[in-house]
Design a protein that fits this description.
alpha/beta; Rossmann fold
């Protein structure tokens, strides 16, 4: 299902939002390394009318390109617990891809620790479980040429864009900072979440091998599930409609059950 005329608009430094007056749930999305909130712009039209899209915008990209990228996870999470309050005022869930999955998880943890609002569901995409990330190649200390080539190989940048040196210079600075942030971050042991977790991934993703994903079930006392798609690290770019459809069905199923009981 596609909903027309829904635009993702910057409302605050940290929040882009596609407002829907009659929505009953909000999906808050966290982008991958080097990407901005605009990575989810197409999702606004793929979600059903009951679900409103919000996307997190971090410094150093798109309309915040002049700002320095984030260098520490802890302070960023503390900022987001406050900055995202306008979109955590009702029923909401988190979706994060790659480094964005770690950020979504750490934010959910911080909210639970502080007794704040809790997501109804946590969708973690293309990210190995804690304790298994050592198997994944580190990228932030590669040369510019090597880093650019690796991101193109993964499917994160089109080859035509990679040929533009000026564009690549700007992209690589943010990419390197983000990879350094997430590759050096370690998820510390702590209380399990109470919310359901669904892990999503491409079947041939070298950044999130299938046998590194099941460990996420140890991070929640709630229901846990996995769903895999054809493709690699950026599988969701080619499977957007199917992925968004699955997320929507998962989020709306409890509401539909409540309406028919």
């Amino acid at each position: 299902m596609t909903v027309d005329n829904v635009d993702l608009i910057a409302e605050t430094p940290y929040i882009w939002r596609a407002r829907r007056a009659d929505s009953r749930h909000r999906l808050i999305c966290f982008p991958h390394a080097g990407a901005g909130a605009g990575a989810y712009a197409d999702w606004a039209g793929l979600l059903p009318p009951e679900i409103e899209l919000a996307a997190v915008q971090l410094p150093g990209r798109q309309n915040r390109i002049a700002e320095d990228p984030v260098t520490e996870v802890g302070p960023l999470v503390r900022v987001l617990t406050q900055a995202l309050r306008p979109v955590m005022d009702g029923s909401f869930s988190f979706f994060g891809h790659s480094g964005g999955a770690i950020l979504a998880f750490e934010l959910a943890r911080a909210l639970q620790r502080k007794g704040g609002p809790q997501p109804s569901h946590l969708f973690l995409s293309a990210q190995s479980a804690p304790g298994t990330t050592g198997r994944v190649r580190r990228l932030h200390d590669l040369s510019d040429d090597e880093l650019g080539a690796e991101v193109v190989r993964l499917g994160g940048i089109e080859a035509e864009i990679a040929e533009d040196e000026d564009v690549m210079d700007a992209l690589l600075m943010t990419l390197r900072a983000d990879f350094e942030l997430w590759e050096n971050h370690r998820i510390e042991p702590g209380p399990r979440l109470s919310v359901p977790i669904t892990v999503l991934s491409g079947q041939s993703d070298p950044r999130a091998p299938l046998d590194t994903l099941d460990g996420w079930r140890e991070q929640t006392d709630g229901p846990f599930g996995t769903r895999f798609y054809p493709g690699g690290h950026f599988y969701f770019l080619g499977e957007a409609a199917e992925l968004v459809g699955h997320i929507s069905q998962t989020l709306l199923a409890p509401q539909m059950a409540g309406r028919t009981s």
